[in-house]
Amino acid sequence: MNRTFVREKTFARDKFLGNMKIAVMSMIVTYVTSLLDFFLVGQVIGEKALQAFALLNPYLSIIFFVSCLISAGTSVMLAFEVGKGSRENGNRYFSQGILLTVVTGLLLGLILFLCKDLILGNKNVPTEIMQMMNDYYLFICLLPVWHMVGELLFSTIWNAGGDRYCGISMIAKLLVNIVTSVVLMKYIGIGGTGLGTVLGCMAGIIVLLFYFRSPDNVFHWHWSFQLKSIYKMMHYGTRDAMPYLYTAALQFFMNLYLLRYFGSGSILIFSVIMNIENLYLTVFNAPSSAVSVLLTVFVGEGNRYGVLKSMKTAERMATLEGLLTIFLLLVFARWIPAFFGISEIPDIDATVSAIRLFALGALVYPYTMLYTTYYLAIQRVYLSMRMMTMQILIMPVAFGVLLSRLFGLNGVWLGLSLGSIVTFILDALIIKYRHHDKSFPHLLNLDKLNHQLSYDVPISQEGVMSLVDHVEADLKRRGVDPKKIYRIMLMIEETEMLVVERNQGRDGIIQCDIFLEDPIRLILRDSGPYSDVTDQDSVAESFRAYSATMIGGSYGAGRYVIAWGNNRTVCKF
């Protein structure tokens, strides 16, 4: 029996680990896709093509920023509405998000096309490299609408429990990208990798569209376009989107700084470092993405124990990822330059030193990604954005420039990592000092937390009876009216015994949350098959089903809303 958030099996832990599988797959595909172009142009064309691609990379980051702003914001607002029990409002946000991605994607592509001469007008870039940039640029203009639609569909379908479709979509996207890029490079050079990326996005979208024809589909079209809701949606998309904008700003500034003070050769090393940065943003974003799906619903419910259970698991995963990443970068640094086609000994040595110095930032990056997601989810928007701005952009740039004056080019790479570490430590001290009356570092109201109860049990007869006994004992200890206790126990027992009956011996978890408010709120969720006990019009297949439906439907405030593809029943007493 688990009533808190220790390392026992919980519903939130199981759901997080399930989300993590898709997040890791998405992470691998996202990173491999971004790395693929660098690898192909470095191996097939050479170091000059790698420099051309590095100089264009900020514009790809801008596309990812706008895409993530809409897709992540839509997903968060949709989950908030589902957490509050309104699937219809969630569908409005989904429909509005589709409209926004199509319109914004087309406009962004048009703007990039019209600004081509302005963007490619840097006179410090050698002619050969500039020609390669021209060859690739057209496909950057074609990318926004396809990437943005694909990201929105992926995030919302994943949020709705369509894990299988998301997984197949990622595989299709990666395979099509690899095959078409390799083939097309033989005919159109560096531009082949750009067209391959576009075709990969199209393949991923085609797979995701099959979800809407499946019986699992929970989305329905509602024409909706409200400026106020668009602002809210983008407001919540800032955390996932801003790293791409900050990466673009970092690349713009450092490209200019390095070209001026250290020459074009430093751009080659910087392109490798920015791939490590992209590794951080993808690898360390996996726990954040996995937990974000849970947090938005739990926050919508006001479920603080659900929040804590989710975050404890995510924190352990972030720690593991950070340590493993540092170890791999330090051990395999010597082999990384060859992957990018860097073959000259001086360049190899300089790149290896840069990788090992920059790897130190992996000490704090996982927590930066996780807590900026978390603080945004609990409505601490300013805190989330301040942490991200200082730790990813401002302080790394400031430390990089400062230390470059002391230690030369190696000072740049050391400064980029030390800036993040120092800022993270300062942020932690400030948060602990300013919010001493709340739980650190989660900033939850301790009084409200003490007025909630949370339980996790296996889907079994023994688990349900143990749950009922613990609920009765805890509610009596809290001085709850005996009549309410009886009704709550009856609701739990009948509802969850029906889940046991329908689950037929499969493994699963039941989570029961009780909010000691006026009226008392009960939320029951499980990972078993569909089971709506509030639907009195449903055909009962057994006496247990009939009994549970009669009891579940007898509470006027009772409602059933699927969340994450799992059962969730909410009642008030």
Question: Which stretches are poorly predicted, pLDDT < 50 over at least 5 residues?
Answer: 1-7
Query: H/E element string?
Result: HHHHHHHHHHHHHHHHHEHHEEHEE
Helix content: over 70%
Average pLDDT number: 80
Spatial shape: globular
| Intertermini distance | 24 Å
How many DSSP helices? 20
Task: Going across the biggest sheet, name each strand in turn.
Answer: 1-2-3-5-4
- Number of DSSP strand runs: 5
Strand portion, in percent? under 5%
Structural class: mainly alpha
Tell me about the largest β-sheet. 5 strands, antiparallel
Layout of helices and strands, plus pairs?
Layout: H1 11-45, H2 47-84, H3 87-114, H4 116-119, H5 127-159, H6 163-188, H7 191-209, H8 227-261, H9 265-283, H10 285-301, H11 304-332, H12 336-339, H13 345-358, H14 365-377, H15 381-407, H16 409-434, H17 446-449, E1 452-458, H18 461-477, H19 482-503, E2 509-515, E3 521-526, H20 543-553, E4 559-560, E5 567-572
Antiparallel strand pairs: 1-2, 2-3, 3-5, 4-5
Please explain how this structure is put together:
There is one protein chain. The protein is built from 20 helices and five strands. It is mainly alpha-helical and 573 residues long. It has a five-stranded antiparallel beta sheet with strand order 1-2-3-5-4, with helices on both faces. Helix 2 runs parallel beside helix 9 and helix 5 runs antiparallel to helix 6. It is globular. The two termini are 24 Å apart. The N terminus is likely disordered.
